[in-house]
Amino acid sequence: MAKLDFIQEDLEALKKEGLYIHIRVIGSPQDAWTVVNGKKVLNMCSNNYLGFANHPKLKEAAKKAIEDYGVGPAAVRTIAGTMTLHLELEKKLAAFKGREAVISFQSGFNANLATIPALVGREDVIFSDELNHASIIDGCRLSRAKIVRYAHADPEDLAEKMEQEAKNYRRALVVTDGVFSMDGDIAPLPEIVEVAKKYDAIVMVDDAHGEGVLGRDGRGIVDHFGLHEDVDIEVGTLSKAFGVVGGYVAGNAEIVEYLRQKARPFLFSSAVTPPDVAACIAAVDILTESGELVEKLWENTRYFKEGMKSLGFDIGQSVTPITPVMLGEATLAQEFSKRLFDEGVFAQAIGYPTVPRGKARIRVMLSAVHSKEDLDFALDKFAKIGRELGVIE
Ligand SMILES: *Cc1c(COP(=O)(O)O)cnc(C)c1O
Predict the structure, then answer these.
(1) For 182-308, where are the E strands, in sequence order?
(2) Which residues contact 142 (CB under 8 A, 6 or more apart)?
(3) Is 181 a catalytic residue?
(4) Which ranges of 71-154 would DSSP assign to H, the alpha helix?
(5) Per-residue pLDDT reduced to its tens digit, 214-225
(6) Residue 370 is a catalytic residue
(7) For residue range 106-161, what is the model confidence (pLDDT) as tens digits?
(8) What's residue 70's pLDDT?
(9) SS3 helix, strand, coil % of the chain, rounded to 5?
(10) Alpha-carbon gap, residue 251 to 231, rounded angstroms
(11) What pTM was estimated for this model as a whole?
(12) Going edge to edge, which strands form the sheet with 322-328?
């Protein structure tokens, strides 16, 4: 079948460049130690920041929801799929985030695909950080608005681009990741908000890696900067720190109502299932009660980063629990990750196109579920392999 020859050729090319993704198979809950490809390893790979993915209270809530509501929503929410559970989750999330209202979606990815095209169209312009997440990029493309990329986390470049472009369009939207998932740096939101104000632009932040991490007891980046009045839309995911699955948008009641009427993934795709929603509610309840898990996450983060720095690793510019161990070539990152795995540490190599060519790394994700012994174990293995591969002395 000559017409499909390109597939084999492209896959071979990926393998040659060290960019072929080998998907590992998980045979246990996501926890500090997880069974991967049949082997129990220290998990430094998942976005399970607070340990909610296997938390007893979340599991209990999910089981109870199955008894009370069954397993499926059986329709899109506008027809027969909005259960009291979905509304309870939205209400509790809104209270937690300190916003008027929340609308939930099937995923964070979907929340971006839903929101951006609902707010802007052909006559509008979007200013988007050049390192924004794929789901923001795709949401922008779907909207058919003019897309102007500004230099990463650079309000001056944003101001320049807005000065040139904003006046030529009906509406302007400024959109950025809150925490950048590959480098762990954060958006300079106060400065971005200031620039956006000048042009009366809508401001939207995707806080997927900021919730449960930044702000008071994990309320996210907008809370971290105290910008509730200035950021119009907060996108969130329920699949990272919240440990389950789903996405949402928090904002004022009008915007949320508008999305209920206009957002296509809300109107044309079924809701998240009752056990998922109940587990998310339990997670929000736990975080609303106490910041203890968030504190533990930060304690672990400080400890591990200090350890890596004193070993001599380059761990980039992260200011969050995301810890990139910079290695350069994708082949080296893959080799490092493979050796770590053999030694019992699961930490994924990340290369192009997720990060730029030549900036391959191992991305270590810290979690409140890690004990100090776990972190010492990991530091020991990083040191051993770092020396073997000539990354550190
Ligand atoms: C992970 C992530 C998403 C996608 O969230 P899902 O709920 O997994 O679909 C969206 N935006 C950003 C910035 C992310 O890091």
Answers:
(1) 202-206, 233-237, 247-251
(2) 113, 116, 117
(3) yes
(4) 84-97, 108-119, 134-143
(5) 999 999 999 999
(6) no
(7) 999 999 999 999 999 999 999 999 999 999 999 999 999 999 999 999 999 999 99
(8) 96
(9) 45, 15, 35
(10) 8
(11) 0.95
(12) 322-328, 360-365, 349-350
- Give how far Cα 267 sits from Cα of 70, 94, 104, 188, Å: 22, 21, 12, 34
Residue 212 is encoded by which pair of tokens?
């449960």
Q: Is 259 exposed, middle or buried (0-12, 13-18, 19+ CB in 10 A)?
A: buried
Active site residue 240: yes
Please tell me the distance from the alpha carbon of residue 243 to that of residue 276, in angstroms, as a whole number.
Answer: 10
Residues in a beta bridge with 205: 176, 234
DSSP designation for 77: I
Tokens 């290695």 sit on residue: 327
Q: Quick check: CB of 104 below 6 Å from ligand 1?
A: no
Catalytic hit among 240, 305, 359, 370: 240
Segment 235-286, tens digit of pLDDT: 999 999 999 999 999 999 999 999 999 999 999 999 999 999 999 999 999 9
| pLDDT at residue 21, as a whole number | 83
Residue type, 218: G
- 177 touches 157 (CB < 8 A): no
- Cα–Cα nearest to 286, from 46, 99, 56, 43: 56
CB burial of residue 49 (10 Å; 0-12, 13-18, 19+): buried
Minimum CA distance residue for ligand 1 atom 12 = 208
Query: For residue 105, how far is the Cα from the chain centroid?
Result: 15
CA 281, CA 102: separation in Å to the nearest integer? Answer: 13
Tell how strand 172-177 and strand 125-129 pair up: parallel
User: How many angstroms is it from 122 CA to the middle of ligand 1?
Assistant: 25
Give the pLDDT confidence score for residue 1 in this predicted structure.
67
Pick the residue whose CA is nearest to atom 15 on ligand 1.
208
Contact 46, 31 (CB under 8 A): no
